């Protein structure tokens, strides 16, 4: 009988609760036990009442609720080996032999480190007298499954992450609201959206909202973008457009890798006579009810996460559940994490072509 622990970590994402509900119910119906680990890795490091057995009824009503009801944190102690050592001890003490983590890039990187260190951590706990050889014996391997929950859609090897579509809807609604006031006053708006180092939300929002210009980290604008942008905007204005919408990803950079600031864009637009405002959408992009797509995605991926644990082989002990071409995928966590880090490396080397390619799951194959 498997005892499956699960946690949500990093920035919350709409749909995380649906994933938790799915894990608990599928695990229970397959004869496993499901353990909620509260406050992300923090709960794993702390143990005690931060780890609690969940049954069918504990996740009633979870589907439609935003955020994550089991809590999340950006945990610094789990980044230290000593933190991961307590996490390992808490897993063994609670009899947990499989772990499902739902979070973004940082969360899955943490899971991958735990996966790499696992037998060593258990050995160290035996060596320092925290566990006996008998107690540790059933925990030679730990199956870890990653579910990608992040509004940023910044993980390679998957088309979409849990929460990204809800967030995009939220942005679209907000830009619709801004558009009507912008058109009324014939104003320009520079709208900053989240996404960390990933431009997916910005790019999709720009396409969905008829933006005049978009700034994303993976494809910095040309050296003379200021004049190019102004030329395009003037053309649109001559065609009768009464509003100007510029979408800026929070991680947008120029070709020298310097951040592109919304206030700077505002100054440029003011310079060509446009009455300009800056709106940073902030956390409204992350909170609130998940859309139907995210509820479905998280539910199906929760089922697959439990399946992956029950079908784990020594060759695939720790997969990441993704989606490609509308089909659920299950691939090595290690590879997905590594490819995601390569995007940042490519950007830091100004190899923007490679950064864009790496974002494509097809390329990651
Ligand atoms: O990763 C999700 C995200 O919302 C990013 O888009 C953003 O950069 C970051 O988290 C904000 O984090 P915090 O809520 O800790 O300020």
From TrEMBL:
The active site is at 152 (proton acceptor). ATP binds at residues 11, 74-75, 104-107. Residues 1-365 are annotated as: N-terminal catalytic PFK domain 1. It is found in: Cytoplasm. Substrate binds at residues 150-152, 187, 194-196, 250, 277, 283-286. It comes from the Eukaryota. Residues 3-309 form the Phosphofructokinase domain. Mg(2+) binds at residue 105. Signal peptide: none annotated. Homotetramer. Belongs to the phosphofructokinase type A (PFKA) family. ATP-dependent PFK group I subfamily. Eukaryotic two domain clade 'E' sub-subfamily. Belongs to the phosphofructokinase type A (PFKA) family. ATP-dependent PFK group I subfamily. Eukaryotic two domain clade "E" sub-subfamily. Catalyzes the phosphorylation of D-fructose 6-phosphate to fructose 1,6-bisphosphate by ATP, the first committing step of glycolysis. This is ATP-dependent 6-phosphofructokinase. It comes from Diversispora eburnea. The chain holds residues 188 to 552 of 938 of the full protein.
């Amino acid at each position: 009988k498997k005892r499956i622990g699960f946690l949500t970590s990093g920035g919350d994402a709409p749909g995380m609760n649906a994933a938790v509900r799915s894990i608990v119910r599928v695990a229970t119906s397959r004869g496993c036990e499901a353990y909620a680990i509260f406050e992300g890795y923090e709960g794993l490091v702390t143990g005690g009442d931060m780890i609690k057995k969940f049954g069918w009824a504990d996740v009633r009503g979870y589907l439609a609720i935003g955020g994550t009801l089991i809590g999340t944190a950006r945990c610094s102690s789990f980044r230290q080996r000593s933190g991961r050592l307590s996490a390992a001890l808490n897993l063994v003490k609670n009899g947990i032999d499989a772990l499902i983590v739902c979070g973004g890039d940082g969360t899955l990187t943490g899971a991958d480190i735990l996966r790499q260190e696992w037998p060593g951590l258990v050995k160290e706990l035996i060596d320092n007298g925290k566990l006996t050889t008998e107690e540790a014996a059933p925990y030679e391997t730990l199956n870890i499954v990653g579910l990608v929950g992040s509004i940023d859609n910044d993980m390679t090897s998957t088309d979409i992450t849990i929460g990204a579509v809800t967030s995009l809807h939220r942005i679209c609604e907000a830009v619709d609201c801004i558009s009507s006031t912008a058109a009324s006053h014939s104003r320009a708006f520079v709208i900053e959206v989240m996404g960390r180092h990933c431009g997916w939300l910005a790019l999709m929002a720009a396409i969905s909202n008829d933006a005049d210009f978009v700034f994303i980290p993976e494809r910095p604008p040309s050296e003379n973008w200021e004049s190019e942008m102004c030329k395009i905007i003037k053309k649109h204005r001559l065609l009768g457009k009464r509003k100007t919408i510029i979408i800026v990803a929070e991680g947008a950079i120029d070709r020298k890798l310097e951040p592109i600031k919304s206030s700077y864009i505002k100054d440029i637009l003011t310079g060509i006579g446009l009455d300009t405002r800056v709106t940073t959408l902030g956390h409204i992009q992350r909170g609130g009810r998940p859309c139907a797509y995210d509820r479905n995605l998280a539910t199906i991926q929760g089922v697959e996460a439990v399946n992956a644990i029950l079908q784990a082989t020594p060759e695939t002990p720790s997969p990441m559940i993704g989606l490609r071409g509308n089909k659920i995928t299950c691939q090595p966590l290690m590879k997905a994490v590594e490819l995601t880090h390569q995007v940042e490396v490519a950007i830091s080397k100004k190899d923007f072509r490679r950064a864009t390619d790496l974002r494509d799951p097809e390329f990651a194959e």
